[in-house]
Sequence to fold (328 residues):
Amino acid sequence: MLQRSLAMLLFVSFLAAGPASAADVVKMNLNAIYPATNFHSQGAEEFAKRVKEYTGGTVDIAVHPGGALGFKGPELLKTVKDGTVPMSDILMGVVQGSEKAFGISSLPRMVTSYEEAWKLYEACKDLYDKAAAKWNQKILYVVPWPPSGLFTTKEVKTAADIKGLKTRTYDKNGADFLANLGGSPVSLPWGEVYAALRTGMIDSVLTSAVSGRDAKLWEVLKYFKKIDYAYPLNMVVINLDYWNALKPDQKAAMERAAKEVQDIQWKKSAADNDESLKAIAENGMILGETDAALAADLDQAADAIIKGFLADAGPDVAAVVEGFRKKK
Fold:
């Protein structure tokens, strides 16, 4: 209850001039769902630091990493909408059940590079902003996760090598994608993955090189195939009631900080991916690229999922997704 009470505190009072006192500061909590060591949480901390600097201390954001405030998962849109927490980071794909547009970046093989991921974000930005507004919130910035690939016990050269793999996946799209390729997807909490690999319950994992590095998957697996499964977006949002209570100069300062942190974090995501690929290779993993033949099979498996997604996505979402795919 104490955490929830803290999350609801908002003090709005302004001085005409001079330094801000405690009573003149807008205080907001930012719910961060990943651990403090994760680059998304670190980005949120940097954002809060810059906001405080650029507003002369009149906006003070306290970041609570690791889901410390107790809010995670599909209910986060509603949690921010109601003002239970004024700000949060949200993995877009997790809330696509509430707003279909937020599932776009999690679709398999929509993009295969950071450059394409940025172009997809630009194509979808208006959709995302409208979707957020429907839920009484504003998107401040978005950052992609590094691309997911396949960590395996045996080398994957062709689509046929995926058949029968018992692969831990992190969402329904990933499960359907691998099932379309003849695999046997398994849903498991991340904390159980290492033990499941040890016991043979699973023999592969669909995840990023960053997660593979952090989990030291080279101790239990030998290969990593770079299949560029997806570059899913994480967004930082603010409740519109809190946003609208800010003065124009405070809003401008927050937008400045958001743009800067977004630029930094996109580069950080790419850099972390490169560093992680190097680290897993140095620890004995064999890395493999996706050739044209495998790419074609992966795209075919992904196509069925994308078509299923668009079937009930609505005309606006369908137009953007289909338009992007045609240009690509």
Q: What stands out?
A: The chain is about 45% helix and 15% strand.
